[in-house]
Amino acid sequence: MTEMRPLTFLCLASYFKGTTFLEEAKRQGCHVILLTREKLAGEPWPMDSVDERFLMPELNKRPDILHAVSYLARTRVIDRIVPLDDFDVETAAALREHLRVPGMGDTTARFFRDKLAMRTQARDEGILVPEFSRVLNYDELRAFMARVPPPWVLKPRSQAGAMGIKKLYTDEDLWRRLDELGDQQSYFVLEQFVPGDVYHVDSIIWEREVVFAEVHKYRRPPLAVSHEGDVFVSRTLPRDLPEVAELKALNRQLMAALRMVRGVSHTEFIQAEADGRFYFLETAARVGGANLAEMIEAATGLNLWAEWARLEVANARGAAYRLPETRQDYAGILVCLARQEWPDLSYFNDPEVVWRLEKKHHAGLIVAAAGQARVEELLDRYTPRFAADFLAYAPPLEKAPV
Ligand SMILES: Nc1ncnc2c1ncn2[C@@H]1O[C@H](COP(=O)(O)OP(=O)(O)O)[C@@H](O)[C@H]1O
Ligand SMILES: [Mg+2]
To answer: Is the pLDDT of residue 128 over 70?
Structure first.
């Protein structure tokens, strides 16, 4: 019998995140390589779980990244390539294609990163989406504006966190904005602004099957929160609501339409005020940001980062992935920018407070309880206190900082 070589995982991180993935991969016996940016060298990476760390000025520059990783591969057998941040999803796919490493390739990665690609594919597969147009041909844009009543949103095809999104009310607004954008305009998508509540479904996919999904609702749409300045709030929905079943079915349909094979996904839908129907907003092939993973863990006991590592390891070993037992509790999260450097959260001392954010100029906490009503009650009480005691406002960035 030949001795088993440990699996080698190359993890890409353009931002500081995914430490739980690194830890679990190590715990599963992998040789863990972290490739991150020079400016993140000082972050508290869990170095006990990282066998080798390499730094580059940036990870998304081609062909530099292809050359750097191919060089590493001269003396290492890289089994899996994992993007820890959304911006690394395309880079990981390009590297897999170049090295012929299994996993999501360029075409599929595009569906999970490019808002124009995901919209087009979802619509073509019969999923309801807001009316939209690529920003390319001016006759097409004129036809769109004649057909679809404003307001519209013009948004970058590959950003996150509501960055760079502009709400537009007239034809003139669009032409002026396109003038400003110049050659950047084709990297945007124009769509109908659909007023309504925003939901998110966070799921695990194993061999094309959604094996775990939790349905949540933001208290206010993320665009309103970031553009007007408010407390970001989300929570688990009561699991017996009809919309929960509907959103889970939609999520399954969408993952199939976008050809997701295995991994984790954070997917958003808008329930239109006008007709009550769910419109696909966006998806991503990664763990949701803004500490949503901690909220889901508080409700279910399951950590999406750790499960992602476990399922990648299972696949690489040709083994089956088995979802652990989960709890059916409820959780809610509140986060906002704070005026204080270290806001005092001592008022929020109910026993249901299970997690506090430790980040300068931020206030954040997670509550969890066996019943959804108790979570709702705490959020109702805490949200105005957060707004009054801590909330600071900074206008949204145009794009992710480099
Ligand atoms: N077509 C739309 N109609 C209404 N609101 C939208 C639309 N597109 C985006 N938004 C708002 O902007 C927010 C961010 O847009 P989204 O497409 O999710 O990009 P991001 O990657 O920045 O989260 C959404 O949560 C929602 O509040
Ligand atoms: Mg979003």
So the answer is: yes
